[in-house]
Design brief:
This protein is an alpha/beta fold. About 40% of the residues lie in helices and about 20% in strands.
Length: about 300
């Protein structure tokens, strides 16, 4: 996927919803990372924000394209809209509340250039306190999904969660994984086109799991690259509507199960619906009872 001296080897689509100053810092970090050659083409899709964050980016970075669809389209639909506005062979989709470390783009674009069957690649994601966020994970099989759902809120290192989040994997070593977080994912455009883009039936959450699963089904690999680092202020945009986000997360989990389960397994969907409704209620109660409220951990 060669690029000329005047063309960007990659583009970045930032999905914004009232991220405030974090959006401008995110865009700045993307433009500052020239490790893949030219700065990326950057498109911001603003999902109906009212905080002026998109306008601030337009003033500060005239070369950045800011799209205003006029409503909150959800993550997947906004991602597709932004991707359609770019041309580069590699396109990153990311949250507005992250900052890219210099050198990340070079590490990711080089791997995609040298591994032609790699369809999606995720960087190492750090929390603001420096700890590693488990962004490279296993396919959520029923046993681990149920165990993680039941125990994950109170016992975050239970065996089911450890397997699902791959907590025992060495975060400093590259590896192939089942899926990587959509908070920051670099995608090969050719691979994305084989699956028809992101599934717009998801509003928020699990669309990344679904996308990576579709890529695998069409013969593409999904990888994790710790040589690329981004810092994520998790929940900076979702904290304003915590209970809605918890509900949307569990609604997306049901959609994923409904899309994935075939044959006799579909008879279990009503049971899954009840389980997810109860789990959502527990997550909301857990958030409400915290002595020091913080953004809900609803990314799975």
């Amino acid at each position: 996927m060669p690029a000329s001296d005047t063309e960007s080897a990659w583009a970045a689509v930032v999905i914004n919803y009232e991220a405030g100053e974090a959006l401008r810092e995110c865009v700045r970090s993307l433009l500052d990372d020239t490790s893949a050659g030219q700065p990326p083409e950057v498109v911001v899709v603003d999902n109906g924000s009212s905080d002026g964050s998109a306008a601030a980016v337009a003033r500060s970075f005239p070369a950045v394209t800011v799209l205003h669809p006029g409503a909150n389209l959800g993550y997947a639909r906004a991602a597709n809209l932004g991707i359609a506005a770019t041309d580069a062979p590699v396109v990153a989709v990311c949250n507005p509340d992250l900052e890219v470390t210099e050198g990340a783009a070079g590490a990711l674009v080089r791997r995609l250039a040298t591994e032609p069957d790699l369809g999606a690649l995720g960087p190492l994601i750090r929390n603001t306190d420096g700890t590693v966020y488990p962004s490279a994970r296993s396919d959520p099989r029923v046993r681990d999904a149920v165990g993680h759902g039941l125990l994950g809120l109170a016992w975050r290192t239970n065996p089911f969660t450890r397997r699902y989040r791959q907590l025992d994997a060495d975060p400093s070593r590259p590896r192939d994984v089942d899926w990587v977080s959509g908070a920051a994912v670099w995608l090969r455009r050719d691979a994305l086109e084989t699956v028809g883009g992101w599934d717009e039936r998801y509003f928020m959450y699990v669309e990344d799991v679904d996308l990576c699963r579709q890529l695998h089904q069409r013969g593409w690999r999904v990888g994790y690259e710790p040589g690329a680092v981004v810092t994520h202020v998790q929940g900076a945009t979702t904290a304003k509507h915590p209970y809605r986000m918890i509900a949307e997360h569990h609604r997306s989990l049901y959609r994923f199960a409904s899309k994935r389960w075939r044959g006799p397994r579909r008879f279990a969907l009503p049971v899954a619906a009840v389980f997810l409704a109860l789990r959502a209620a527990l997550a909301m109660a857990d958030h409400a009872l915290r002595r020091r409220p913080r953004p809900p951990q609803v990314t799975g």
